[in-house]
Amino acid sequence: MNLPTISLNFALSADGKISSVAKRPSGWTSREDHARLLELRKNADALMVGRGTLEADRMTMKSPQDPLRCVVSRSGNFDPGHPLFHTPGGPIHLLATEGQGIEIAGATLHRGSLADFLEELSRLGVRHLHCEGGGSLAFELLALDAVEEVHLTWAGHTLFGGREAPTISGVPGGFLPGSRKFELTEFDPRPEIGECFLSYRRVRE
Ligand SMILES: NC(=O)c1ccc[n+]([C@@H]2O[C@H](COP(=O)([O-])OP(=O)(O)OC[C@H]3O[C@@H](n4cnc5c(N)ncnc54)[C@H](OP(=O)(O)O)[C@@H]3O)[C@@H](O)[C@H]2O)c1
């Protein structure tokens, strides 16, 4: 498969969870976390989120270089009234993997598998695809073994918490086909805000 280089960015609470209540906005863990999120977007040709995150966080997915804005769904039940579709920015590409999907003016709708969509983005010239969640989508990317970089904000000052709460590899119960190894490339503790910024690169043996 000819895929873009894919990176993930997540904020984790003390127990490794990424969200306390499904469908509730997770927000930023700190001003610095938000600044890092914006910085990480700058290197991307395309940004990507799952429809759950788009809805929960009311994302408009903007960055100065106007990267492609990609949203992944099984049902394709995109809300035409969502702020994403009314905010200027990069071209919008929507994926419906199972349903027919809703056509929305100004957006390109794709149908097919997530793997095919990633290949199509590569054909469109996307070299670096940056995914900002959520856990369900990240699980699928990790299952495809398509993730090369992981960026984390470790926010140990908070517990999102809960047995059912997702991690960066989705909700409890789903196992990846195998472990994925990464090496640490950045370790940036910020004791003044009680957080640590981490980056990892995939190690392929
Ligand atoms: N802490 C953080 O850094 C962080 C980051 C991102 C999100 N979050 C939080 O996570 C929560 C959202 O979680 P979530 O699990 O709903 O997020 P999600 O992964 O963004 O969305 C799940 C939805 O995405 C679609 N999807 C996922 N995988 C797919 C695949 N392989 N193929 C096709 N469609 C796929 C499906 O959409 P359809 O239902 O349309 O079929 C699915 O219902 C929110 O509370 C959000 O704030 C936290």
Q: Would you give an account of this structure?
A:
- There is one protein chain.
- The chain is of the alpha/beta class.
- It has a single domain (5-202), classed as Dihydrofolate Reductase, subunit A (3-Layer(aba) Sandwich).
- The protein contains four helices and nine strands.
- It has helices at residues 31-41, 51-57, 114-123, 135-143; strands at 5-13, 46-50, 68-73, 92-96, 107-111, 128-131, 147-155, 182-190, 195-202.
- The protein has a nine-stranded mixed sheet with strand order 5-4-3-2-6-1-7-9-8, with helices on both faces.
- A hairpin with a 4-residue loop joins strand 8 and strand 9 (195-202).
- The mean pLDDT is 94.
- Bound molecules: NADP nicotinamide-adenine-dinucleotide phosphate.
- NADP nicotinamide-adenine-dinucleotide phosphate binds next to strand 1, strand 2, helix 2, strand 3 and helix 4.
- NADP nicotinamide-adenine-dinucleotide phosphate binds at residues 10-11, 18-19, 22-26, 49-53, 56-57, 72-75, 77, 97, 114, 132-137, 140, 166.
